[in-house]
Inverse folding.
């Protein structure tokens, strides 16, 4: 049986969530990120209904305070962001370990692994699955997470047709509330 949540606790949770999103000054951006945040929770329920997020989102900003705030917003359950510079096997493992939460990727493109993993991500977004090889056995594991890419430089992922790319300006946020 599910534990019941008191109206007081529910009201506090709603108030805290609303306060979190108040850091976003742009109403349109606040609405989009709020919807993306919630759709990420429901991915397993939305996919069978044909209503899952059809692509990932790429959030481009050169403001480090905003990037850290976005990373905190979308990294749940203590899972760290996935770095595109990781080895491809580690990248794939991190992608399939996320379920009903955002797979937050940090795109810094500092190593050759970043280019390989960017191609892997394109394939994952196109097919909806993550290729995995265990010894001689090869399988495809379904992507069970929404994709959120955070970047501070323009990369190939910013131009991907499988990612909705938004350029976020400092004036879109209240930087004091992002601290």
């Amino acid at each position: 049986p599910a534990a019941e949540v008191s109206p007081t606790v529910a009201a506090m949770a709603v108030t805290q969530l609303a306060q979190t999103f108040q850091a976003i000054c742009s109403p349109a951006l606040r609405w989009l990120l709020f919807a993306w945040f919630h759709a990420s929770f429901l991915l397993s329920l939305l996919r069978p209904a044909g209503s899952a997020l059809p692509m990932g989102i790429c959030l481009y900003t050169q403001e480090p305070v905003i990037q850290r705030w976005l990373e905190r917003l979308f990294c749940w359950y203590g899972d760290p962001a996935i770095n595109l510079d990781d080895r491809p096997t580690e990248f794939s493992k991190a992608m399939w370990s996320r379920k009903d939460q955002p797979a937050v990727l940090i795109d810094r493109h500092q190593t050759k692994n970043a280019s390989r993993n960017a191609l892997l991500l394109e394939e994952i977004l196109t097919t909806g699955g993550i290729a995995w090889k265990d010894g001689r056995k090869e399988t495809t594991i379904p992507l069970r997470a929404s994709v959120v890419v955070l970047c501070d430089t323009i990369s190939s992922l910013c131009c991907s047709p499988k990612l909705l790319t938004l350029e976020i300006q400092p004036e879109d946020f209240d930087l004091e509330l992002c601290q």
Summary: The mean pLDDT is 90. The chain is about 40% helix and 20% strand.
